[in-house]
Automatic annotation (TrEMBL):
GO terms for molecular function: 3'-5' exonuclease activity; DNA-directed DNA polymerase activity. Keywords: Nucleotidyltransferase, Transferase. GO terms for biological process: DNA-templated DNA replication. Pfam families: DNA_pol3_delta2 (PF13177). This is DNA polymerase III subunit delta.
Length: 322
């Protein structure tokens, strides 16, 4: 058996080797925890691993690959965090399509965990085992995590894959029942390869975006998409410090009016990297980290940004002013 199923995955040789050998030696664990920062290939690795598992007893690899990409394989249950809207659950992508603005992030809900238990109550129909993949497992509330714990204790003829940023972000009792598979930041060469292969070479010209990404191709692509959404005149203004209180207030108001919460949180990341490259002043980075905390606490965004720029107004950072 080869690891051809993992050919799209770049920069994670350890994970590929562990998962490939597990299938080759018929020692697939009942549960895995894929951990690492966002955008380094955990979700892609889960798809590749499922394909390898299912193709182990199937001669129709091309057809299988297509079905898995379409999400219509009867023995695969893929779970994503959801919003609750008008009595329906929506993934982040579905909410974006409907242009819904949500203040709180999506979560894995108790009813989704119950659906997993129902799915696993029947034997696999085509594959050697049922597989469940849970993205952003760290978003499970305690009730949902406890319900999943019962399933992990008796998974039956199944393998569960939990995807999370770190072991600490998941309930310890869940972590103890999973085999941990670490995923790492990509080195510059691997990062360049992924961005080139996916048609995002232009990102390589944006040093601030690459600094935000910190070895994560997914984060680099997402940041670049967010950069294109920010109005150009606003971006030009925020990369300079205000020179008066009135300018600080106007800039805070403009950010609150033109950017949603997600955009404002991204702007914090961008400004931290941009200002650091300009002046290497830790106090500015710390101030912007406070800005992030206040935004996450649902403080009034306009007031948060006004206070941020008023405090930056008094800094002597060597950054050009408006």
């Amino acid at each position: 058996m080869t690891n051809n199923s993992f050919s799209p995955l770049v920069g994670q040789p350890q994970a590929v080797e562990i998962l490939t050998q597990a299938v080759k030696q018929h020692r697939v664990a009942p549960a895995y925890l894929f951990v690492g920062m966002d955008g380094v290939g955990k979700t892609l690795a889960a798809r590749c691993f499922v394909e390898l598992l299912f193709s182990a007893q199937s001669g129709h690899v091309t057809s299988l690959h297509h079905r898995l990409r379409q999400g219509n394989h009867p023995d695969l249950w893929w779970v994503q965090p959801t919003y609750q809207h008008e009595g329906k659950r929506l993934t982040a992508a579905e909410a974006a399509e409907k242009k819904l603005k949500r203040k709180a992030p999506p979560i894995i809900r108790l009813e989704q965990i119950r659906e997993i238990a129902e799915f696993l109550a029947r034997p696999p129909l085509e594959a050697p085992r049922n597989v469940v993949v849970i993205e952003s497992a760290e978003t499970m509330a305690e009730a949902a995590a406890n319900a999943l714990l019962k399933t992990l204790e008796e998974p039956g003829q199944a393998t569960l894959i939990l995807i999370a940023p770190s072991p600490e972000s998941v309930l310890p009792t869940l972590v103890s029942r999973c085999q941990r598979i670490p995923f790492y930041r990509l080195d510059p060469e691997s990062l360049t390869l992924v961005l080139t292969q996916t048609g995002h070479e232009e990102i390589l010209q944006h040093q601030t975006i690459l600094s935000i990404a910190a070895g994560s191709p997914g984060s680099a692509i997402a940041s670049h998409e967010q950069l294109k959404i920010i109005p150009e005149n606003l971006l030009q203004q925020v990369t300079k410090l205000p020179s008066s209180y009135s300018q600080a207030l106007q800039l805070g108001k403009k950010i609150a009016q033109e950017l949603d919460t997600e955009g404002q949180l991204w702007l914090v990341d961008y400004l931290q990297q941009f200002y650091w490259q300009q002046c290497h002043q830790p106090q500015i980075i710390h101030k912007l980290e406070q800005t992030r905390k206040f935004l996450l606490c649902y403080a009034q965004p306009r007031l948060v940004w006004e206070c941020t720029f008023i405090e930056l107004l008094t800094s002597d950072a060597g950054i050009p002013r408006l």
